[in-house]
Design goal:
Largest sheet: 4 strands, mixed
Order of helices and strands: HHHHHEEEEEEEEHEEHHHH
Number of domains: 3
Number of strands: 10
Helix content: 40-55%
Low-confidence stretches: 1-9
Distance between the termini: 46 Å
Bound molecules: flavin-adenine dinucleotide
Strand content: 15-25%
Mean pLDDT: 96
CATH superfamily of the largest domain: Butyryl-CoA Dehydrogenase, subunit A, domain 3
Strand order of the largest sheet: 1-4-5-8
């Protein structure tokens, strides 16, 4: 798969951010791009690649240096997701879930003991996964049915989780369960569950339209005993853990869609310059220039929204409306740009030799996970009306 034409020039960055993005872009080009097609076809995330992401510090971006991390910002994590997505949104999702959901939840809700126990592992070698969804609870996440009953000093978890990203690679799972179904959302509690906990199994892996290298699996909790010390945050406060992390996580998905569109646009421009029809390069036709210009404008609009939401979050200001708008807009934009990129490449855009075929398939997930597009519109409406 060609790796030459990825991304558009990233503006609006500080010198440190530019150095960081240069390193991530080089990694994506040199290490990720050569594996992308095979991983997609085999529906398998290369474990050596994940190890390299740990070595590069991409799995501990926001983890403070005292816990072995890079001590970066949430915005840095968003930049990493964006740049990896220009080459492979499935690889970017490993980094995204790990940093913006799992690490993020531990940093905010973990007690000192939990931070000392897990943050160094999350920075060094343990992939994180985030398990909220179930067969009966997707958009209505707090209708979850996984139960957590107190037995001595342990909670015993029973239930099934569905569609859990990173499940095959992960060593640590944040699992949401209810300690009291009659209490509604106020019974929901977040637990830190290790992959080798008795009664915990990673089940069937989904065969998906896009981001096929990312493992999306069922989790089976069959009387899985979790010590009470593994409660993340407080008992009955899991809904807060979920809401707060997902508010931030959706900026990561917006960044994934932004990067994907940048990647597709880069391939479209390269093709338009290389391909001749009617005696001229395609890019010399004004109709082609206008399409590429429109795509670039939509990408820039999404970038401003994504960066703004991430920077608002980092500065401790209100960002929920901006995050929902960024995810909604960036996912729609990515579908449009990837679709146009397929058309710019013509027949070549429709076959697997071209990276845009995969990016087009990958774009669809942006409107579904971490809150569907309708759920983003509901959040936006609540905030603006
Ligand atoms: C590849 C992939 C990876 C995922 N990774 C994770 C993960 O790591 N962890 C995790 O916990 N979950 C994960 N999920 C689950 C994902 O978050 C859910 O699929 C998503 O929240 C939608 O839930 P649902 O599939 O049950 O759809 P539903 O909630 O059933 O929605 C179906 C449709 O109905 C619409 N709808 C629902 N309610 C309303 C309403 N009130 N008004 C109008 N329209 C409505 C939705 O917008 C959607 O269009 C993943 C899913 C996929 C496909």
């Amino acid at each position: 798969m060609s790796s030459e034409a990825v991304g558009v020039p990233v503006t609006q960055l500080s010198e440190d951010e530019k150095l960081f993005t240069d390193a991530v872009r080089a990694f994506a080009r040199d290490e990720v791009a050569p594996l992308t097609r095979r991983m997609d076809e085999e529906q398998h995330m290369d474990s050596a690649l994940v190890e390299k992401m740990f070595a590069l510090g991409l799995m501990g971006i926001e983890i403070p240096e005292e816990y072995g991390g890079s001590g970066g910002s949430f915005f840095d994590a968003v930049l990493a997701v964006e740049l990896l997505s220009a080459v492979d949104p499935a690889v970017a999702l490993v980094v995204d879930v790990h940093n913006t959901l799992v690490t993020n939840a531990l940093l905010r809700w973990g007690n000192e003991e939990q931070k000392r126990k897990y943050l160094p592992r999350l920075a060094a070698n343990t992939v994180g996964a985030y398990a909220l969804s179930e067969a009966g609870s997707g958009s209505d996440a707090f209708a979850l049915e996984t139960r957590a009953e107190m037995h001595g000093n342990d909670y015993v978890l029973t239930g099934r989780k569905l569609w859990i990203s990173n499940a095959r690679e992960a060593g640590l799972f944040i699992v949401f369960a209810t300690v009291d179904a009659s209490a509604g959302y106020k019974g929901i509690t977040a637990f830190l569950v290790e992959k080798d906990a008795a009664g915990f199994t990673v089940g069937r892996k989904e065969d998906k339209l896009g981001i096929r290298a990312s493992s999306t699996c069922e989790l089976i909790l069959d009387e899985c005993a979790v010590p009470a010390a593994q409660v993340l945050g407080a008992v009955g406060k899991g809904y807060k853990v979920a809401i707060e992390t997902l508010n931030e996580g959706r900026i990561g998905i917006a960044a994934q869609m932004l990067g994907l569109a940048e990647g597709a646009w880069g391939h479209a421009v390269k093709h338009a310059k290389d391909r001749k029809q009617f005696g001229k390069a395609l890019v010399e036709f004004q109709a082609m220039q206008f399409q590429l210009a429109e795509m670039a404008t939509e990408i820039e609009a999404a970038r401003l929204m994504v960066y703004n939401a991430a920077r608002l979050r980092d500065s401790g200001r209100e960002f929920r409306k901006e995050a929902a708008m960024a995810k909604y807009f960036a996912s729609r934009m990515a579908e449009r740009v990837a679709s146009l990129a397929v058309e710019v490449l013509g027949g070549l855009g429709f076959v697997k030799d071209s990276p845009v075929e995969k990016l087009y398939r990958d774009a669809k997930i942006g409107a579904i996970y971490e809150g569907t597009s309708f759920m983003q519109l509901a959040a936006i409406a609540k905030s603006v009306l």
